[in-house]
Amino acid sequence: MALHEKLITYIYTTIFLFLTITGFAQMPIFKRYHIADIPGLGWLAEFYITHAMHYIFGAVLIGLVAYLLVEQIAAGKHEKRLTKSGYTKGVMLIGLIVTGGLMVFKNLSGTPYSPIIVSILDLTHLAFCMALLFYSTFTLITKKGWVRYPIKDIVTKRIF
Amino acid sequence: MKRIITRRSFIKGAVTAACSIASTSSFARAASALKSGEPIATLLDISKCVGCQECVYACKESNQAKYPKPEKPFPKMYPSTVKAEDWSDKTDVVDRLTPYNWLYIQSATVEIDGESRELTIPRRCMHCQNPPCVKLCPWGSAIQLDNGISRIDSDTCLGGAKCQTVCPWLIPQRQTGVGLYLDLLPAFAGNGVMYKCDRCYNKIAEGEMPACIEACPENVQTIGPRDEILKQAYELAVSMNGYIYGDKENGGTNTFYVSPVPFEKINEVIEKGKGKPHFEAVADTMKTGNNLALSMVVAPVAGVAAAFAKFYATNTNRDDKKNS
Predict the structure, then answer these.
(1) Helical H runs in B44-190?
(2) Which one, of B228, B83, B272, B293, lies nearest residue A107 by Cα?
(3) pLDDT for residue B23 is more than 50
């Protein structure tokens, strides 16, 4: 794996990890289950801290997705192509970003959504998150990558 | 010519006069504002309150049907450190906020013009303009209505008490053994339903006054359109050389207390604790998050710019290698 890709993987994994933890921390579970009592994890029960962290990592994720989209378009489909599992995870990520973005807008002053819309957004965001978590675990176990390199694959697999 | 007043003309005249008085009274104006759905607020003139508790009992009577009716025994919860909160045997408690008491009278002995005086202050939810209880509820069970009232939907609340934790005044109160959590995973998630003042939203929707305002014999509270009430609150504060609480707290609320003494002094002497809110200055709790929201607008632009920068750098390197 090239250094650039290693760096992207490292950044994505870090974002994914912190977004998941701070996302779950929006529910009052870490205090109930004493996870926040573990030394160094007290911040998990601080809603305003985890809320701010979720926003920060959310912004970094949006930036990373925008970067990778442009990079993909620039590279062209012959050089680099999203795999089926890559597409699936991409759709889940976009779903998370859209529902998350709508919730961020909801949290601004003077933007009351109807209760049913808020509940649908909350549950859809959680559903996308759970789906991405399970599917990412599956692709990690089965070693399915996000992208494939058509030309490089031909050169490395067919000739040698 | 002698004018004869018949019984019919007398009644007609009296009704017309009553209607014209009512239509110009502040009560009627407030009632029409309440029904229109525009943001409303309440002004509480602390100097008028005599602590009779009429508002407290009117609130209890009016909201009786909304109070929890828990099922007992409560389901066992895990881990065992999770405690049930049961107020169902203490429904007559009126000296603090509970799931069965959404308004109580706080008292403060202060010095005014060299004389000791006891101030009595009705305390309940402040109904913030950007309420963290509503915005941060993970299930959307806390709701803000178009008229600015925030309330908790007892049909969907799971009683996790996050709304209480994020509320600067820790207003919502929990009752175990009631609500949706009983039908989900009562042992592992949820712990009942949270309760707090809902400004008698159902009465307001009908153009009626909240029960506490209707019952007050001293007219401590004035309700109406937020802009108008805020203006009145400032005028009242100037006229009594007094102080306002609630106009700027937590970024602005829909409840304005006007007092003849500074709220710092009141806060020093009032009894504070569980179900007994403070009168401290409160910064806007949602401000950090909402400032960070801007970063989400900047993020995609930064991402695209970084990708173009990388694309340019790669191509420049390639050209340099070709040329050399």
Answers:
(1) 54-62, 132-135, 162-166
(2) B293
(3) no
The closest alpha carbon to B207, from B42, B64, B29, B71, belongs to B29
Task: For B157-191, write each residue's pLDDT tens digit.
Answer: 999 999 999 999 999 999 999 999 999 999 999 99
Q: Any idea which of A68-82, A126-140, B251-265 has the lowest mean pLDDT? A: A68-82
Which residues from A are below 8 Å from B288, CB to CB? Answer: 48, 52
Interface test with A, best of B253, B296, B298 (most A CBs within 10 A): B296
**Residues sharing a CB contact under 8 Å with residue B231, sequence separation 6 or more, in sequence order:** none
Distance CA B155, CA B180 (A): 6
What crossing angle do the helices spanning A115-141 and A3-24 adopt, rounded to 10°? 140
| Amino acid present at A104 | V
**Structure confidence at residue A154 (pLDDT):** 66
CB contact under 8 A, A122 and B138: yes
Q: Which residues does B144 contact at the CB level (< 8 Å), separation at least 6?
A: A112, B131, B134, B150
CB contact under 8 A, B189 and A122: no
Q: Give the closest-approach CA distance of B243 to chain A in angstroms.
A: 25
CA-based nearest distance B267→chain A, Å: 25
The structural domains of chain A, with segments of one domain joined by +, span: 1-75, 79-160
- Decide if A145 contacts A83 (C-beta within 8 A): yes
Nearest CA among B288, B275, B80 for reference residue B187: B80
Please indicate whether, in this complex, the C-beta atoms of A66 and B303 are within 8 angstroms of each other.
Answer: yes
Nearest to B196 by CA among B163, B218, B226: B163
Residue B17 to chain A, least CA–CA distance (Å): 40
Q: What class does CATH assign to B26-291? A: alpha beta
Give the Cα separation of B157 and B167 in Å (integer). Answer: 16
- Taking the domains of chain B in order of start, what are their residue ranges? 26-291
Helices (H), chain B: 7-24, 26-36, 54-62, 132-135, 162-166, 201-205, 211-215, 226-239, 263-269, 287-323
Q: Is B185 on the interface with A (CB under 8 A)?
A: no
Do the Cβ atoms of A47 and B162 come within 8 Å? yes
Least CB–CB distance from A101: residue in B144, B296, B308:
B296
CB count, 10 Å around CB of B52?
Answer: 15
- The interface predicted TM-score of the complex, written ipTM, equals 0.88
Would you call B310 and A71 a contact, using CB atoms and an 8 Å cutoff?
yes
